[in-house]
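Figure 2 data, in text form.
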Amino acid sequence: MRDSFFAGAPAWHNHPMSRPTPLTVTLPDDLDAFIRERVAAGRFASPSDAVRAAVALLERTEREGDLTRDEIRREILVGIEQVEAGHVRDGEKAFQDIRQKLGLR
């Protein structure tokens, strides 16, 4: 079960050239307890494994967020190109058509 989290994690966490670097982290009591509970439950082999998983998740989340922002930017550019090419329709008319098709008016 422990390995399933790392399946989508970046390769740096087990890269042959990567050696663990000691890092001291101070956590609030509730997060410390949470990590220790996960270790006691067998979810992680050690608190270090739990913290590595958390950092890997943070990295993946931020990377995916960057992709999402890039996708939004691309879609905005497509929309601008469509407007400039005249491929637009009046928004109020479009919503009237949708309401009519759905039988809402």
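Caption note: The two ends are 53 Å apart (CA to CA).
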